[in-house]
Amino acid sequence: MVGIKGNRRVVYTKKAIKDSILTLLEEKEIHQITVTDICKRADVNRGTFYAHYKDPHDLLQTMEDELFHKIVKYIDETPVNEYSDSLLLNVLELISENRALCKILFCRQRDNKLLDKLIVIASKADLEQISEEFSKSYSHYYMRYIVCGCIAIVQTWLENDLPESPSEIVKIINSVSTINYNDLTQAEITLK
């Protein structure tokens, strides 16, 4: 039935439109892409595009929001003591499954607010329990440091076309984070 959420034709059309913009973003910046470009590549008419999205920016924003909603859902579903393993693995598997979009978001889009969004997402996590021994006065530095470090590792992973598995990247991130957490904790003690 037309118009019902989950209709196979609608799902297929949205997927074709999303695939189209991802392909175009490999060649151009978002501000250079037109609705006509997307429609030609997706083999849909403009009316179909406008039934779902306002413009290419809205389409990309929708795709980014869907990805981040999944990450927030993982945070909500994962116990705090499993963040560094289960949560990180789920997020990296999600990135792997959405490789083309994540390459665009993490590596190619200069004007997006990815870091800010990830910091907001990280702040939804119960960081007080993660770093109980780290004082509140320094925890925001630690969080920003870890998020930026994780982004750099994920960017490198994506730029190299994901040669390691998500579980190998979890090990890399956790080993780097542990080393740096210990260094930061020692630095905090020294500053006091």
Automatic annotation (TrEMBL):
Tell me the InterPro entries matching this sequence. Answer: Homeodomain-like_sf, HTH-type_Tx_Regulator, HTH_TetR, TetR_C_Firmicutes
Q: Which residues form the HTH tetR-type domain?
A: 11-71
Task: Provide the alphabetized UniProt keywords.
Answer: DNA-binding
**Signal sequence residues:** none
State the superkingdom: Bacteria
Report the DNA-binding ranges. 34-53
Q: Which Gene3D superfamilies match?
A: Tetracycline Repressor, domain 2
What is the recorded name of this protein?
TetR/AcrR family transcriptional regulator
**Organism, scientific name:** Paenibacillus polygoni
